[in-house]
Amino acid sequence: MADLQEERLRLLTGRGLDAGRESVSHPDELMVDGTLPGRAYETIKELPEAGAGAGRWYR
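Request: output the structure for the sequence above.
Response:
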């Protein structure tokens, strides 16, 4: 989910009371500029994370 200014992305897990809280493997907030998730958000394309053995994709 992006903030109103579309500068930051916020992780929403949808898992109970801790939905959106930072986890060990995922920060809870990322900048749109200069990040792969931000590029996926801006271009409206699914993009794979480099070296993600489990096949993590951002969209």
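Helices lie at 36-43.
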